[in-house]
Amino acid sequence: QLTVGFSQIGSESGWRAAETTVSKSEASKRTVNLKIADAQQKQENQIKAIRSFVAQGVDAIFLAPVVSTGWDAVLKEAKQAKIPVILLDRDIDPSGKDLYLTAVTSDSVHEGEVAGDWLAKTVGDKACNIVELQGTVGASVATNRKKGFDTAIAKHANLKVVRSQTGDFTRAKGKEVMESFIKAEGGGKSICAVYAHNDDMMVGAIQAMKEAGLKPGKDILTVSIDAVPDIFKAMVAGEANATVELTPNMAGPALDALIAYKDKGTTPPKWIQTESKLYTSADNPQQAYDSKKGLGY
Amino acid sequence: MRRPSPVMITALVFVAGFVICSLQFPNFASTRVVANLLTDNAFLGVVAIGMTFVIISGGIDLSVGSVIGFSTVFVALTTEKLGLPPLLAFAILLVLCAAFGAAMGAVIHVFDMPPFIVTLAGMFLARGISFLMSTESTPITAPLYSAVSDFGIALPGGGRLTAIALIMLAVVAFGSILLHFTRFGTNVYAMGGNRTATALMGVEIGSMTVRIYMLSSVLAGLAGIVFSFYTAAGYSLSAVGVELDTIAAVVIGGTLLSGGQGTAIGTFIGVLIQGLIQTYINFDGTLSSWWTKIATGVLLFAFIALQQGMVRLAGRSRAIRAGGVT
Amino acid sequence: MALALPRRGLAQIAALIVILLIDRMVSPQFFDLRLQDGRLFGSLIDVLNRGAPVALLALGMVLVIATRGIDLSVGAVMAISGAIAASLADSHAWPVAVAAALGAGLLCGLWNGFLVAILGIQPIVATLILMVAGRGIAQLITEGRIVTFTSPDIIWFGTGSLLGMPAPVVIVVGMLIVTGLVVRGSALGLLIEAAGGNARASELSGVGIRTMVVSVYVWCSLCAALAGIIAAADIMGADANNAGLWLELDAILAVVIGGTSLFGGRFSLVLAVCGALIIQAMNTGILLSGYPPEFNLVVKAAVVLVVLLLQSPRLSDLVANYRKARA
Amino acid sequence: MQETAEARQPLLDVRGLSKSFAALRALDQVDFTLRAGEIHALLGENGAGKSTLIKVITGVLARDAGTVSLDGKEIVPRSAKEALTAGIATVYQEVNLLPNLSVAQNLYLGRQPTRFGIVRDGEMKRRAAELLAGYDLHIDVAAPLGSYSVAIQHVVAIARAVDLSARVLILDEPTASLDRHEVEMLFRTMRGLAARGIGIVFVTHFLDQVYEISDRITVLRNGRLIGERMTSALPRLDLIHMMLGRELSETTEERAVHEKSAAAPCASFTNFGKRGYIAPFDLELRHGEVVGLAGLLGSGRTETARLVFGAERADSGTASVEGKPIRLHSPRDAVQHGFGYCPEERKTDGIVAELTVRENIVLALQAKRGIAKPLSRREQDEIAARFIKLLDIRPPDPERPIGLLSGGNQQKALLARWLATEPRLLVLDEPTRGIDVGAHAEIIRLIRELCERGLALLVISSELDEIVAYSDRVVVLRDRAHVGALDEHAIGVPSILAAIAADDAARIAEEA
Ligand SMILES: Nc1ncnc2c1ncn2[C@@H]1O[C@H](COP(=O)(O)OP(=O)(O)OP(=O)(O)O)[C@@H](O)[C@H]1O
Ligand SMILES: Nc1ncnc2c1ncn2[C@@H]1O[C@H](COP(=O)(O)OP(=O)(O)OP(=O)(O)O)[C@@H](O)[C@H]1O
Ligand SMILES: [Mg+2]
Ligand SMILES: [Mg+2]
Fold first, then answer.
1. Best mutation site among D178, D296, D297 for ligand 2, i.e. most ligand atoms within 8 A of its Cβ?
2. Inter-chain contact B237–A67, Cβ cutoff 8 Å?
3. What does the pLDDT profile of chain C (327 residues) look like in tens digits?
């Protein structure tokens, strides 16, 4: 039986909680003993956790890095101890390519592009003023999702981001920021679409629009990322238009790669990219909701 | 006749905690764990020494976490983007930090404003400036960094005393001397005892205030350098919330938040206690995110309660007056 | 301690007006009001409405600070009470859910008060314990997810309205009046100010400090619990990870902007609420301004410093001296 | 000698000094001249502006107008440090030292002996011990100053200033908490310094001391200079007239013997004590009786008072009121039973500096009534106005923060705080400390009057004359134990002194 130490970032969002739940169930499916150390969003704690995994002599380490840099030293220690490391959910800085076995991640720039492309396609040639709800300032996911979206809409002169503020990835801030966007843009009449870096902020923004007497999903298009259950609920109600899935199942592919590596010695590819699937109201949101709601979001 | 000092009690509490952990986990009592404790908490130790001065003088410095974040970004950008040699970058950084701390101290003194609020504004400012400099995390590739991270004094039993651990120990030693054996240190205690009286006794409290916050910011900058050694990167979101950890470490170390009492070595032990709590939780390894938080809180309470209990036993009951209103 | 002849309130109110005028400059429709679904709607209302949780926290915090204490746990208490209210909202009648949430607040307050007044632990560390553990407890209740609910009665606390005013604003005004009556209608206010100003002297005058300190922490936690219900009702869900995160600092800032010293003593409830509004007016202004979010903190730092500088009694002294020197 | 003093050129020359606090003119065109080698008493009622004058001279307060010159050169110190550098050392009225630092550190703060920047601790302690030995004080100089009594702290403050004084030494009420022995010691030192050509400014309310030590007197009233006289040429009654602006029928401090033995005990304490704090004692206080506590510094008088008031919890014995046993675990209990206590450390244990005079006066009464029964604003105003008038608290503004009052007026407000509760037993620890002659007589009259109304009083005072003047019974303490009692027929300064000194106090009392 394998023992795997998993340095998880924390539980800052529902998606993260779901990832933890799914990882546990994927591990038990494969009878792997998964030790999870929660870092409370702090890199220091993740480094400490990896050190103590090394000290305890686990068979492999999963790391969901809170930032992309600063892992060289501690990963070298793991390498010296001959413990393979697999990155989940986020890549680290290239200087350490040989320090880990593989990375199972989505491409968050690509996620932003998928969202942007959908919006461009849906709007067509109409002029469209977009407001953007950013994630936490400085978080790499936020930076990348912004970058991807900007590239996608740069090709369309009729699409323009008129306002962009941070909503800290939370519902409450998403709602507050949307409220002031609505006021700043003449009661929301001139806003054609909202792009949020995650679904939670969008759920808050949808409430703000409704309270202002606007019809989200109809007057104002919405597109966001993550595909958490609550956004499907909104889609069912016709209040949300699209979301890009970020699968919480990173551990499954990672465990498969690890087991293959341990049993047969097959070296996995350096990057196992997860799918960034687009869901719209045409994709049976009710069914998606039902399948996701038990996952611990 | 002398009662045991708070430092002794804190040290005893730490030893007791360590023994309990060692009994529970077989690999715990090793030089590796001890060395990790020093390395992992090096930046906290450095910044906490600065905070000790501030708190003993009757103030508080909430900006330290942000200053650490700023420092890592500054070092990363100047070495990577501008190509400055790291040592030059450090020097510039420490000068900037000194100016920042001096400015906070000056505002506190000249306008007679509460340190809590001035340094809170400092906290916003330092973090805000790091966002403006870069929102991305920048790896540092300077050769000095790999040299520093490779350096280490091997201890018997697999532990390794790293460079940053040594930096922290040096800062603790330096802080102890400055605090306990110089006029500057005595003045710091004096200001915490009674500001007005200190001024009447002929101490320039204005320049003292400026220098104390300068020291704190410089040590926070140094902690930022240590942090950048630790992670070999600069990131604007690093060390969020560290100010509270620091204050907790200082207070657990026996320093009174109302000022006038405390020791540098006590702070060091306070930092180790914080680290011990973390290590315990990591060794346990079965706690979910929320149980981790709850356990941290419970352990914090256990340590503080133990400390209070021992203080009471030592017969100081007379000095402790109704809690919040001492 | 700088003693000065009394002169209160003007600076805060002036600061609030100035910031609102600046908001008007960055956003021309700032003062526009209209009725939307029987509820007033406009940026000014947003300031009141969004400022409500911090105003509630400040209302409790100001009493704690007046006794020379501080309560870092209010954010965590908000998360706990929101989590409880949300978990019970759809399965129980609303009074049960609200009572349970407030009850949890009461327990948290008793715990803090016990640590501070009975065990004699320094307030900042004593409440740090609950700040850390409390968020864990809230996450334990929600198991880390966002617990949503649909009970319209609970949702009223966040988005309902009374006579056109958003419910949170009504609640804050109500709590301000209740707190004012309790504190100023009884001798509590005087005794808190005395105990905060000089605990030894007050004790020797026969003031029962312990009970008072405990009740002040309890009141603070109750206010936080109420704020937690509002925050949860606002988004129709309890977000244990983020509800009230870092709001304790905003609440302390509000109290200090409201002219209450962190060294205890004199306090003003109205000015503490005014402080909360100043902070929110600034935040709303930042959101309306359209600057990139990287600037938020820098702007915030500058505004805080300027507001406090204007209040500093030393500034007027310095200005007066300068004038005299020139003359 | 007078001629020579006259001929000496002024050392410190103050001309036209003015200082206002808002509307209050604390100093109005004051002139003051100090000559080298003289001891100059600065006198005036409470609130006359003595402390303000001193603070303005040393730059702690900024002046509004006027000049100060030292040795003929004009100086404008902007902080205590600059005054020190110029050669003016000061002991301010409230003990302004640092309780958290050691005695030695207090003595040498800012000028510790160092080597390579490191303080030479041993050397500093040695010097500190030597310095204090000159004041007959043999204490552990490494212990925190706060662990010593106010009196010792005062001696330390004086020792520090004396050691620092280069040209001028200013002492603002240094003797308020000292007893005779220490006062003599201080005077000896002062004379020595004056002989070396140092000019000394001395503020006090004890006229005996003025005549004992000073060469010259300057009197202030309401912030104005009233006059400067040679001490030898100013009879006592004229001096009082100068200070008060009116006559004072100087109370013949003679004991009024009245029959109280029949009166019922108001409060009694049996075998009351606390280990390591004060030895168990029996104490009975009857209605209308004044019991004085006499003893040397540190003999346990304050400890007795704190125990009686519940500020310290007794671990043996019982307390009873009107014959019924009571619980006495906290000051709160004591207040409920009608006790009151004016502590000796006014600043730390008495006033709430930030609150107004009115709020300070009603505080104990309000605490006694409980939170639920607030005094209305009208009642508060009425009480405050009554006591401000009764005790002549100045300025008579009930809405002024009490911290802005002069020391003596703060003391009066504290007395008012307890009188407002209409107590049955009042414990006064050094009630007349820092109070001017006029008010002093007033307070003694008040004490008598209170007794007429059936109040029991327990009074601590280092002034034996004072104790003799009003006590019906004197309890003598030594080494934290009650060692004897003198009943009313035996009371007198010599008998008390004898009892304090004697091995067997009871025997002496009997003989007397
Ligand atoms: N900082 C201040 N602000 C306002 N008023 C003040 C201040 N300091 C002193 N005063 C006022 O100035 C007057 C003079 O006070 P001062 O302390 O000089 O009196 P004093 O002669 O030393 O009296 P005492 O014998 O009681 O010590 C008093 O009425 C006092 O209330
Ligand atoms: N000469 C001395 N040497 C050492 N310690 C002393 C001396 N005199 C007093 N103390 C200490 O000072 C502390 C306080 O004494 P305290 O003031 O309570 O005594 P007291 O009898 O009330 O005197 P008073 O009221 O005159 O100041 C005690 O702890 C005592 O040990
Ligand atoms: Mg005076
Ligand atoms: Mg005494």
1. D297
2. yes
3. 344 444 567 888 888 999 999 999 988 889 988 888 788 889 999 999 999 999 999 999 999 999 999 999 999 999 999 999 999 999 999 999 999 999 999 999 999 999 999 998 889 889 999 999 999 999 999 988 889 999 999 999 999 989 889 999 999 999 999 999 999 999 999 999 999 999 999 999 999 999 999 999 999 999 999 999 999 999 999 999 899 999 999 999 999 989 888 888 999 999 999 999 999 999 999 999 888 888 889 999 998 888 888 777 777 777 777 776 666
Task: Measure D427 CA to ligand 1 centroid, in angstroms.
Answer: 27
Specify the ligand 2 atom closest to the Cα of D430: 25
C256 Cβ contact list (under 8 Å, min separation 6): B114, B116, B117, C262, C275, C308
Q: Return the number of other C-beta atoms located less than 10 Å from residue B22's C-beta.
A: 14
H or E element in which residue C173 lies: helix C167-185
Q: Report how far residue D129's alpha carbon sits from residue D104's, in angstroms, rounded to the nearest whole number.
A: 8
Q: In whole angstroms, how far apart are CA D382 and each of D120, D379, D421, D449?
A: 59, 5, 14, 21
- Please compute the mean of the pLDDT values over residues D162-166 and round it to a whole number: 83
Strand ranges for C2-105 from DSSP E? 34-36, 39-41
Which residues from chain C sit within 8 angstroms of residue D403, using beta carbons?
Answer: 1, 3
Would you identify the CATH topology of the domain D264-338+423-512?
A: Rossmann fold (3.40.50)
- Domain residue ranges of chain D, discontinuous segments joined by +: 2-100+144-234, 264-338+423-512, 349-421
Q: What are the residue boundaries of the structural domains of chain B, listed by start?
A: 5-314
Residue at token pair 């004790």: C203
Q: Tell me whether the CATH fold assigned to D2-100+144-234 matches the one assigned to D264-338+423-512.
A: yes
Instruction: State the fold for domain B5-314.
Output: ABC transporter involved in vitamin B12 uptake, BtuC (1.10.3470)
Distance from CA of D411 to the nearest CA of B (A): 21
> How far apart are the C-alpha atoms of C70 and A247, rounded to whole Å?
43
Note the CATH architecture for domain D2-100+144-234.
3-Layer(aba) Sandwich (3.40)
Residue B319 has a pLDDT of 35
Between chains, do B201 and D112 touch, taking CB under 8 Å as contact?
Answer: no
- pLDDT in the model for residue C11: 83
Position C255 scores a pLDDT of: 94
B contacts of D101 (beta carbons < 8 Å): 186, 189-190, 193
Question: Residue B186 is nearest to which of D81, D90, D101, comparing CB atoms?
Answer: D101
Q: Which residue has the higher pLDDT, D143 or D262?
A: D143
**Structure confidence by residue, pLDDT tens digits, B283-321:** 776 777 788 889 888 888 887 887 777 777 765 433 332
Q: Are A60 and A2 in contact (CB under 8 A)?
A: yes
Rounded distance from Cα D268 to ligand 4 centre (Å): 21
Q: What is the pLDDT of residues D277-299, one digit of tens each?
A: 889 999 999 888 889 998 877 78
ipTM of the shown complex: 0.87
| Beta strand segments in D222-277, E | 224-230, 265-274
* A240-285 per-position pLDDT tens digit: 999 999 999 999 999 999 999 999 988 999 999 999 999 999 989 9
